[in-house]
């Protein structure tokens, strides 16, 4: 570990108030790296001032929202200051007629959904169900990790729902991109650049998000079959049916696939009937479906195991299930879009075997949650012009390496 | 131009792939924004990624700017040449390299026309969703550069939603891939930045596209209203109800008149029409379609026509697609604007545009992708009347101000290009522009890749463009403005 850099605390206390410039405690540690100070700015101007001061003092900064995904990525090489977005938790606007909302990066997913649920005469939601506790996980953190859940099959990831972003660079520069309209091609799409950047490029302060109407009804069909090949064939059969499922999640070793349709009562009923008739499966009753829905996003994240994010060609579904079944304790594959999350033990051998197998299929594997001794296995090998471009982008936005240095691919 | 560079370019492309004769260069002097014209020093027509890389390397070494170009149908001057620079025209790279129906991917070279992608997979029940109205001629490379939309992106998303990977020649001539057929490529999402970067971050030479199944059913209706604001309220009500039609298009009386004169689409004679299309599973579509009809009736639609079959649907769309070109029937000249407003603000913005018509004593025909708030007001003028062209441009600029004051955008799908680079500071703060500049420099530190586009420069923003002149493709009836 690097030697601790001395921090001049007073300027930070002056910027955000003494009660929001706190000495770091043991549970503020980021992947084994202990910051000295936790700063909680109240608004974007304070974030900018804090970053300017941190850069001036040559400190390194890790951004924390709810702290649920701080272990994603590799450990930062240094971290003296933890910048908490906790107080940037305001709903700026919700325009039900336009199906958009704008919120501070520190607002939790649950708080946002609760606000949306209270809007009179509308049933709108942010169609994201990432595998993080929604009452803790923040919108900024969800953007910074790009994490997603079963709904991805129909609505995409936060990449597809983010229509605008405000942020602060390491040197305090306040930037923004996109806006609050759903169609907009003015300027570079910095929102996509920041999605999944793990706080290494900028501090996200505010996000504008596209919303969807909540469907009045929801039905689930459970497919099952004994081999990966047979199950995959059923799942791929779904793609040819006139149905629009919200999620299609293969769960292994359960040998099942949960197919959920969210629609009008009539539309949902007709679609599950089509599915049951054409690819088989059992239409679940209300209670059973609700139990399954509530556990689906969390499934491979239960317990303490290592969790790997996997992507592979959609046409190699059977091989992916078989491969993950061999090396992982549990895997959930979003069957129509070629992405999966797998839980493994802390032994490096099966992780490496799974990675090699996935890469042979033409895919890749990244460890999302893993203990420190596995830090060298977090990212796949990184080389080539694309990684050089990523380094150039990092250098352009954060030339001194202030923001979470070393957390991203290739030590960026 | 430096003779060493000319020789290097000649070596980089096959015989006949280098154009330097002044009369031949004039073909490339503008794109669909015909008021801006610059003759380049040379045009190259490479046929492979390696040839593009060789051309870019040669330009980069000589520090000579280059501009990528596809079919030249862009409406913001994104492919406007740079004086003394090179145009790298990709229309000879028009191979469909791979079709993977099960994986729902098609890999193409950038010169492939948008519609060719759907043509290649239609027999297998799939299509490529983004549908800019010039889709029969505009290229995928240009679509990637502009993040093109189209009438159906309301439901299906824009080019950026459907491009999953590209091969990029960086501004110094290196070749790299970004994204890929498989989701979630590790590292920063540079693909997301390159799509829509208007050719300023490199040249895309291969594109992997996502294709989707053709919906089971399509239902289309045309509704006539007694006023634009009544139609606007109907749109707001449909969206607020949570219905996502495949498309909602809106035209005003002036646009309807022009269309009727041009293509006889038999639109209702009224103050405003809405063209609403729903698609998807039959199970879902029928009840939603009935609900949309009900909303339109409640919004006092005077007339509702439902397309009984594919040919009636085609006729309804024919009117909409002909709208820009049809303006020639009612005005010698026109300027196409492209702005965006929040969808709930249609009615007040329409009132604002009407007030501007009075103030400037000019007519504005309104053609909108109403479902996503994307306005295409057409400012009509007579170029031969002294000062009218300038007044029209000023009015068009005031419409953008109106969009911004409602929290909208200066462009929804045509791009910033050279046309609106100087308007960027109206929408973006100094800090935001600084970030864009830094990202651009990360890709292109020497400033050779399509300079003068997207971001304002003092030189650029001192000049005044000429009036609109019709594009050769428009005169030939091949392309329309939308």
From TrEMBL, chain A:
InterPro entries: FAD-bd_PCMH (IPR016166), FAD-bd_PCMH-like_sf (IPR036318), FAD-bd_PCMH_sub2 (IPR016169), FAD-linked_Oxase-like_C (IPR016164), Oxid_FAD_bind_N (IPR006094), Vanillyl_alc_oxidase_C-sub2 (IPR016171). PROSITE patterns: FAD_PCMH. It comes from the Bacteria. It holds the Pfam family FAD_binding_4. Residues 31-214 form the FAD-binding PCMH-type domain. The keyword Flavoprotein applies. One of its GO terms (molecular function) is FAD binding. SUPFAM superfamilies: FAD-binding/transporter-associated domain-like, FAD-linked oxidases, C-terminal domain. Keywords: FAD, Flavoprotein. Gene3D superfamilies: 3.30.465.10, Vanillyl-alcohol Oxidase, Chain A, domain 4. The keyword Metal-binding does not apply. This is FAD-binding oxidoreductase. It comes from Candidatus Amunia macphersoniae.
Automatic annotation (TrEMBL), chain B:
Its cofactor is FAD. InterPro entries: FAD-bd_oxidored_4_C, FAD-bd_PCMH, FAD-bd_PCMH-like_sf, FAD-bd_PCMH_sub1, FAD-bd_PCMH_sub2, FAD-linked_Oxase-like_C, FAD-linked_OxidoTrans_Type4, Oxid_FAD_bind_N. Residues 36-214 form the FAD-binding PCMH-type domain. Keywords: FAD, Flavoprotein, Oxidoreductase. SUPFAM superfamilies: FAD-binding/transporter-associated domain-like, FAD-linked oxidases, C-terminal domain. GO terms for molecular function: FAD binding; oxidoreductase activity. The keyword Oxidoreductase applies. PANTHER family: GLYCOLATE OXIDASE SUBUNIT GLCD. This is FAD-binding protein. It comes from Candidatus Amunia macphersoniae.
């Amino acid at each position: 570990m690097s030697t601790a850099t001395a921090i001049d605390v007073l300027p930070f206390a002056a910027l955000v108030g003494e009660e929001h410039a706190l000495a770091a405690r043991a549970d503020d540690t980021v992947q084994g790296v202990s910051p000295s100070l936790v700063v909680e700015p109240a608004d974007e101007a304070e974030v900018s001032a804090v970053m300017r001061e941190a850069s001036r003092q040559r400190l390194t900064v890790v951004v924390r929202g709810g702290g649920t995904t701080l272990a994603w990525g590799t450990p930062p090489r240094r971290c003296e200051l933890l910048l908490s977005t906790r107080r940037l938790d305001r709903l700026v606007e919700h325009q039900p007629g336009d199906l958009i909302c704008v919120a501070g990066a520190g607002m939790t997913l649950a708080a946002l959904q609760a606000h949306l649920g209270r809007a009179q005469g509308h049933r709108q939601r942010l169609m994201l169900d990432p595998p993080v506790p929604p009452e803790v996980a923040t919108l900024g953190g969800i953007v910074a990790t790009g994490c997603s859940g079963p709904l991805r099959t129909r609505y995409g990831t936060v990449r597809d729902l983010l229509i605008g972003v405000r942020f602060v660079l390491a040197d305090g520069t306040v930037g923004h991109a996109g806006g609050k309209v759903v169609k907009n091609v003015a300027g570079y799409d910095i929102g996509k650049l920041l999605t999944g950047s793990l706080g290494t490029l900028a501090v996200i302060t505010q996000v504008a998000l596209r919303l969807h109407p909540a469907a009045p009804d929801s039905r689930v069909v459970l497919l099952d079959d004994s081999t990966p090949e047979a199950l995959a064939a059923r799942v791929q059969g779904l793609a040819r049916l006139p149905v629009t499922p919200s999620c299609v999640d293969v769960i292994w070793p359960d040998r099942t696939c949960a197919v959920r349709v969210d629609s009008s009562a009539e539309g949902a009923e007709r679609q599950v009937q089509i599915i049951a008739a054409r690819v088989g499966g059992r239409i679940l009753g209300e209670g059973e479906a609700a139990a399954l829905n509530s556990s689906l996003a969390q499934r491979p994240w239960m317990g303490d195991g290592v969790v790997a994010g996997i992507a592979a060609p959609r046409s190699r579904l059977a091989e992916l299930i078989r491969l993950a079944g061999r090396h992982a304790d549990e895997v959930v594959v979003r069957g129509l879009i070629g992405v999966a999350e797998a839980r493994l033990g802390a032994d490096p051998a099966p992780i490496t075997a799974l990675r090699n197998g996935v890469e042979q299929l033409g895919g890749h594997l990244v460890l999302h949650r893993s203990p420190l001794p596995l830090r060298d296995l977090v990212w796949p090998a990184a080389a080539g012009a694309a990684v050089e471009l990523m380094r150039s982008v990092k250098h352009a936005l954060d030339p001194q390496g202030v923001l979470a240095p070393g957390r991203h691919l290739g030590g960026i | 131009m430096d003779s060493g560079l000319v020789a290097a370019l000649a070596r980089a492309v096959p015989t006949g792939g280098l154009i330097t004769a002044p009369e031949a260069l004039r073909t490339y002097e503008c794109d669909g924004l015909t008021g801006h014209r610059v003759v380049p020093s040379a045009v190259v027509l490479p046929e492979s990624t390696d040839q593009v890389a060789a051309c870019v390397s040669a330009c980069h070494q000589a520090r000579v700017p280059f501009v990528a170009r596809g079919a030249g149908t862009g409406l913001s001057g994104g492919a406007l040449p740079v004086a003394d620079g090179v145009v790298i025209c990709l229309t000879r790279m028009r191979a469909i390299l791979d079709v993977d129906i099960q994986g729902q991917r098609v890999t193409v070279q950038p010169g492939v026309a948008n519609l060719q992608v759907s043509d290649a997979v239609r027999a297998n029940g799939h299509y490529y969703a983004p549908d800019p109205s010039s889709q029969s001629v505009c290229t995928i490379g240009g679509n990637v550069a502009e993040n093109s939309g189209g009438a159906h992106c309301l439901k299906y998303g824009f080019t950026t939603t459907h491009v999953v990977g590209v091969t990029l020649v960086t501004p110094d001539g290196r070749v790299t891939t970004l994204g890929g057929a498989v989701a979630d490529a590790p590292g920063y999402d540079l693909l997301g930045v390159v799509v829509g970067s208007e050719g300023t971050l490199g040249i895309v030479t291969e594109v992997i596209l996502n294709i989707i199944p053709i919906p089971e059913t399509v239902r289309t209706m045309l509704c006539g209203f007694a006023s634009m604001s009544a139609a606007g309220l109907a749109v707001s009500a449909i969206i607020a109800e949570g219905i996502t039609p495949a498309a909602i298009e809106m035209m005003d009386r002036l646009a309807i008149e022009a269309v009727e004169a041009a293509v006889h689409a038999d639109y209702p004679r009224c103050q405003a029409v809405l063209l609403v299309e729903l698609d998807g599973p039959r199970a879902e579509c029928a009840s939603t379609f009935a609900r949309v009809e009900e909303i339109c009736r409640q919004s006092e639609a005077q007339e509702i026509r439902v397309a009984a079959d594919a040919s009636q649907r085609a006729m309804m769309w024919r009117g909409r697609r002909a709208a820009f070109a049809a303006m020639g029937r009612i005005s010698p000249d026109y300027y196409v604007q492209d702005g965006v407003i929040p969808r709930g603000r249609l009615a007040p913005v329409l009132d604002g545009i009407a007030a501007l018509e009075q103030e400037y004593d000019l007519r504005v025909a309104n053609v909108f992708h109403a479902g996503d708030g994307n306005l295409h007001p057409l400012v009509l003028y007579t170029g031969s009347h002294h000062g009218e062209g300038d007044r029209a441009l000023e009015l068009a600029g005031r419409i953008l101000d109106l969009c911004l004051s409602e929290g909208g955008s200066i462009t929804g799908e045509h791009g910033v290009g050279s046309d609106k680079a100087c308007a960027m500071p109206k929408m973006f703060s100094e800090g935001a522009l600084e970030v864009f500049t830094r990202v651009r420099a990360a890709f292109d530190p020497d400033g050779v890749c399509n300079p003068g586009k997207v971001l304002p420069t003092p030189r650029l923003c001192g000049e005044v463009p000429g009036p609109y002149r019709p594009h050769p493709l428009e005169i030939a009836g091949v392309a329309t403005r939308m």
